[in-house]
Amino acid sequence: MCGRARLATDVSEIKIQFGIPDSVPLPNVPARWNIAPTAMMAVVRRSPETGERHLGMLRWGLVPAWSSQGTTRYATFNARAETIATAPSFRGAWKAGRRCLVPVDGYYEWHREGKVRTPYAIGLASGRLMALGGLWESWRGPGDEILRSFTVITMASTGRLAALHDRMPVIISEPDWSGWLGETTSTDAGKWLVPSPDENLDIWPVGPAIGNVRNEGPYLAARSAV
User: Fold this and answer.
1) Which of 58, 106, 151, 193 is within CB 3.0–4.6 Å of 81 for a Cys-Cys bond?
2) Comparing C-alpha atoms, which of 2, 84, 90 is closest to residue 41?
3) pLDDT for residue 73
4) Computed from CA positions of residues 200, 111, 103, 49, in that sequence, does the dihedral angle turn out positive or negative?
5) Which CATH topology does 5-106+128-156+167-195 take?
6) For the chain, what are the domain ranges?
7) Which residues of the chain have pLDDT under 70?
8) Assign residue 159 a region: left if phi > 0, alpha if psi is -120 to 50, beta otherwise?
9) Which residues pair with 121 in a beta bridge?
């Protein structure tokens, strides 16, 4: 799974790395080291109106367009790659090609050994921003208010991550960003649902303070002794 992330990189750097056009207004993206589901996060998507890359703040936890109350009975902050084309909450966005990129400095995962859970931070070995593959959706309320939300796609873990947790987020490599966003023609979006190579990732233990969603600050991502 992927249920905790961090993004402290300045929005101006996000704009540069993700090729956001100068014509697109930038949102306020506060530095966060402990982002949990239901929070608002910066998301890169292709605007249906202009076709340009757009950076906006969307809620983590996809609300299907067909929801009657703007909520869902199920946890939708993650979508399994194996069932994304058939799961009722996600199949509409998948079929319509509403794919997005979620820029993060990295994410956290917990390794369980007996009753002990040890948190780890995962980032790119290059130090660049990581782009999590996701889906986004718009929900229109009775007063015509619009809620935009997203989910992070996960798959079975491989390599070193498999020893940490059985699920990992889909990480879209930079050369594939354009295709994933639908800027180029492709008949098989599933080809991008592949694990990130071991050598591309940096994994390190962090302190238990990350377990409390009220905690914030750079110290949460500091390397810790196991």
Assistant:
1) 193
2) 2
3) 66
4) positive
5) hypothetical protein yedk fold (3.90.1680)
6) 5-106+128-156+167-195
7) 1, 73, 186-187, 225-226
8) left
9) 108, 204
